[in-house]
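=== RUN LOG ===
request id: a7f3
mode: sequence -> structure
chains: 1
length: 395
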Amino acid sequence: MNIGKSIYLDHQATTPVDSRALAEMEPYWTALPGNPHSLDHYVGWKAMRAVEEAASRIARLIGADADEIIFTSGATESNNLALLGLARRATNGKRRRVLVSAIEHKCVLAAARVIRDQLGFIVEHIPVDGDGRIAMSVLEETLDDDVLVISIMAVNNEIGTVQNLKAISELTRRHGVIFHCDAAQAPTAIDLSSIVDCVDLLSLSSHKMYGPKGVGTLFIRRDLQDQVEPIIYGGGQQNGLRSGTIPVPLVVGMGVATEIFTNIGSQKKRVQLRVLRDKFVKNLTNLHWKAEVNGPKSQDRHPGNANIRFEGFSAHDILSALQPRLAASTGSACTSGIPEPSHVLKAIGLNGNEAEASIRFSLGFGTTDEEIEAATRLIEETLDRVANNRLAQTT
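=== RESULT ===
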């Protein structure tokens, strides 16, 4: 899709709000403004019914029950609630180890550091192979009866790796370990209809799945809910797990958005997206500049994800030169304004120069064939220009 002058290839950062979600949200901004926790009158009842319907829709997406869905501000809060909430309730228990994969989202890694530094737990990182898959032999050796929780994302946000959650689940349950999964990137990539058969807690983010920003959910298995300490306190809403007024319009929008992925056409959309992505990757790797794909093969990764390494270039230089005509992302994160190589790319074996030469292009359901052809031409022209400018500066 085009946004202004830009070809938008950054759908793993955020997706546009689906028009159906926008339409159902609209009345709850003005015509139906009720607080869902005001249960003494009809307007409040109407708002609460909308929240309950949204929870039911999201539950259907993952195979859960509506009372196991806790609304949050997004996957970052959901991940923090899952990990910090479990650890704070278990500080006096015998399970004092927490395991996270080496390629988790920054919010999971940051929460794990807090659990280590403030609560005294031992935190260990599970390595991955060159495609970003969990090293199952290491995981099996590391798991024991002193592990409280393991957190492994379903689909990686940088290189698109899809993990074998069933195999991981079989190992964790052998030791009675709680399995948390960050599934923010999963709806556009895989079928989630039975995912809760594998996991105990699951985080989702609305704006990664064609819903509005500012809302997400945490699935907490019903029998685990008393083992999670809230991280936000107040009126005791949502089974006492997340206080605060539920934002009805946002919740409604997320609920509607889930139906994109529960209808019979969702798998067809994923297949079409993979075909388009594969064509784009072929275009880029056939340029006269050397370009390599980071991560797993086509069928083993997010269907819209293309993480490409342009040998000898700086990804920041390329993206800067592409503005405002194309939107994509580097695999880098900034801490206090200091650019650092992506921890995900380093974990799969790339060195600093290779990581800093890598760009994540993420296509969406609205991306067209014409756009990827235009994007290919823009990238080729930009590589030529960046190389020529660099040559001119050295002569």
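=== NOTES ===
The chain has two domains: 2-16+265-394, 19-258.
Residues 369-394 form the longest helix (26 residues).
=== END ===
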